[in-house]
Amino acid sequence: MTIFLYDLVAEADRRPSPFCFRIKLALAHKRLAFETAPVAMTDIKALEGGAFKTVPILKDGERVVGDSWAIADYLDEAYPDHPPLFHSPEERGLCRFLEAWLFSGVLQQVLRFYLKDIHDLLLEKDRAYFRQSREARFRCTLEEAAAGREARLDAMRAGFDPARITLTHQGQPFLSGQTLGYADCILAGVFLWIEAIGTVPLLVEGDPLVAYLERVRASLAR
Amino acid sequence: MTIFLYDLVAEADRRPSPFCFRIKLALAHKRLAFETAPVAMTDIKALEGGAFKTVPILKDGERVVGDSWAIADYLDEAYPDHPPLFHSPEERGLCRFLEAWLFSGVLQQVLRFYLKDIHDLLLEKDRAYFRQSREARFRCTLEEAAAGREARLDAMRAGFDPARITLTHQGQPFLSGQTLGYADCILAGVFLWIEAIGTVPLLVEGDPLVAYLERVRASLAR
């Protein structure tokens, strides 16, 4: 039975969700075959009896699981003979810290920077909802969020310095050490997301995170 | 045979090294008995044939190990029947990320804030060396580093927000999840260090990190 993943979709089949990228990387890491089912932002609430407000949503036979953490736990539980996402509860705990670091600080800047880009790429039907909900959250218009963003580019990129230090000065190719782990799915998911939707690159040539992202891709393509 | 740990010492037997606190917490976590051997900063280079420039240095019978990461690895290798510091290479990798986050950003602010406090508490014989080396590194005098520091207090405390979010919103009492791990030795070691040397508290009542530090102490006292 093929695993299905409801995946947020934008124009030209672009996929504008970092959480969906995270789970796609996790599925690849677990060597599980899957297909994505593209879904518009405003159609999520109509899926699977209206049980979910966000994607990713994973459908594995009769089992339907929402929320990326619940999905990761489900995958390790359901497929113990495939490579684990979490080798220990301690690794899982530290992945949650990584997410807290990323989403409390660094990604607030990133999201603000790319907010208008995301809007402009979304399906026509999703744009009004996106504008309203994000303008309420950020307390400014999408245009105000984007204004003068070039001046914030260096600071935004520097926000990832703890990852750069880990990957360059500490002799480990992945956040998780010598081999890719769920923490890398979290971080690389962010880079793939921005790659899909950004009109200004987040990572530029010479950045050790470019080489890192290549290692992640190579690791999952093997 | 008792394990000895060379531990940086200041006036009134205070211990001004976050790396030594980390290893003392790690030894307690592994339920290994140890004694500390207090050492002045300027005496480190004379220890054990001059092989080390920093503490902690662990002496276990004939074996002498410097550097906190090498010590942690040694302890897991030498005492496999005691609770592990690292349950997997992935956990170790993420502990290095935690250190990169802490020491690249947050702790630069913390160190600058408490630099003069540390100096004033050091043994008389260590003060000139400390002043010279730290003033060169920070490119300002200790007095300049301390000037107007109260204005930076809130930002310094906010630097620990990713830890607060992990420990409060994600239902896990420790960075490492439900039980204390090496990551918690790293973070709590910082708090114990500032507790020992700061004239202004880093953590104040109501901060979830105060309750966290109590949990760390309780976990190790069991």
UniProtKB/TrEMBL annotation, chains A, B:
SUPFAM superfamilies for the chain: GST C-terminal domain-like, Thioredoxin-like
InterPro entries hit by this protein: Glutathione-S-Trfase_C_sf, Glutathione_S-Trfase_N, GST_Omega/HSP26, GST_UstS-like_C, Thioredoxin-like_sf
Q: Name one Pfam family in it.
A: GST_C_7
What is this protein's name? Glutathione S-transferase N-terminal domain-containing protein
Fetch the Gene3D superfamilies from UniProt: 1.20.1050.10, Glutaredoxin
Instruction: List the coiled-coil residues.
Output: none
One term under GO cellular component: cytoplasm
- Top-level taxon in the UniProt lineage: Bacteria
Q: Which organism is it from?
A: Polyangium jinanense
Q: Which PANTHER family does the protein's record reference?
A: GLUTATHIONE S-TRANSFERASE OMEGA, PTHR43968
What are the GST N-terminal domain coordinates in residue numbering? 7-83
